[in-house]
């Protein structure tokens, strides 16, 4: 029963199928109901006509009924339990009330089954000490009183040995609140005078309000006659007769999709269409059309109304495809490139056996099937490229067609991401950061950028981003790349300073033979070079950073950083940085910086540039060395222009041109040319570079 119907407890009878007890809350009152046909019909439980003393109960339905406690507790010592046994059909032991009139005892008792249900043992459930118990051999109609201890005992609990054939019970408790626990073993074997024979039994008919058929069967049981104190034994069988009954209305319940109404008629529910056959029903086949009724499960009735309520066979009508759907087997709209994507085609109505199916995967490949049989387990396809594909399903038969569309996002799993960042950046200047993803053709990717201690990422669809650091120190940049349900990340540290100097480094060729070109090796080599520089020059370790570049030949960059405790005198600090740079530059030029890669392999570190690199800072102005270089380039260009403009006024240019002309004539002329012809060599003239230097010396350049 559904909770919405107010059912608070439900109990199934043992020994007789189809009989349930249920407590239902009606008008704020809990009432006990009973069913004999597995819940099809319910009615209130009739109270006994008389009480234990023989007085009339005067309890008339539906105004008065018997109420039972149906709560089944896991604690075997708790009160209010209800129980029944397969070997004692028709007998249920429970605690209840009907207007303060009890069923057997005036007070609450615990009751146990003994000897296959042939005997009942009752013990008063009380907090006071007791010394008696009661035994019944006639299913509770009469009780005999027995003493189980010489002194009253506070009973804490009792146990019956496992097995309904048991005739032994153990009672435990204490004689006083301060005494130790006592165990009392009660053996009932002496009560049974002998084994039961056929003369000790009588027949008992199972009835449903006078009706002998319950769940489509008529059953007759044998029970021990009142007063016969004999043991039933292991071979006891209570059933004598079991034969099917003629099917009646109460043997049938409403079929799926039908609701029972007040006149016991089964009417189709508002959501159910009884005229619509199963989608597996193909033209030319037949199906069972429900009459709205079905025989109750486990009901054994036969003939009678069975033919009337049995589903009828009907021919399957032809239908056009309707309600076509295409979905993935896992319900997701994302698939991985190079892996199987399984599609399921569903159709609400139509002839599955006579409907053609076509599935276009959207990548230039399509498949067709003559009916639905081959596609019941799904259609598999492997996409060779990433992207968003329109998957189209098309169903058609002679009565019509239907179409369904699915958009599938095919992604290539991201295997690796490398974050490319500069090793050192200038404060308040933008730095470009790039995430290199492998494999490269992954379709649409989402990038999550985390800079420094920020708690909120920057989200882009581009693999590059520019960012400006406003504070000095070591900052961490992290990128997370999302492709479908995959998420990988890479992190790099970047040193941010107000200014720095850098110098490119190269190495002796023997280092290339041992370069595995992996990040871990480059990091280790950078640390080794840094230690070698510190050892030779005694420069503070925190002012040197060495970054080894990937690829061959092996190269690196040396960064010279300002001191952490930088004072406000920037010019003085810049001068200190220039001195450190010159110190390192000289040590590198003198081949003093070297390290042993492994025994027998000595690597020398060189500077790639021949001159000291200029200072890199955040100011908009240029350094003096850079300005001098710029002026030099300008004046050299101006001198070249003047020479070209006034070349006729410079004698050696004409001579040089004439010599060149004569040389050309000499090369292409005849061999018999006169030897007396004048010959002019270039060594007789001043070199053009010398003249240019002399002319430039006459000009004032930065002096």
From TrEMBL:
Its main location: membrane. It is a single-pass type I membrane protein. It comes from the Eukaryota. GO terms for cellular component: membrane. The keyword Cell division does not apply. The chain crosses the membrane at residues 626-644. Residues 360-404 form the PKD domain. It is found in: Membrane. The keyword Signal applies. InterPro entries: Ig-like_fold, PKD_dom, PKD_dom_sf, Sialidase_sf, Sortilin_C, Sortilin_N, VPS10, VPS10-sortilin. Keywords: Glycoprotein, Membrane, Repeat, Signal, Transmembrane, Transmembrane helix. Belongs to the VPS10-related sortilin family. SORCS subfamily. PANTHER family: SORTILIN RELATED, VPS10 DOMAIN-CONTAINING RECEPTOR SORCS3. This is Sortilin related VPS10 domain containing receptor 3. The gene is SORCS3.
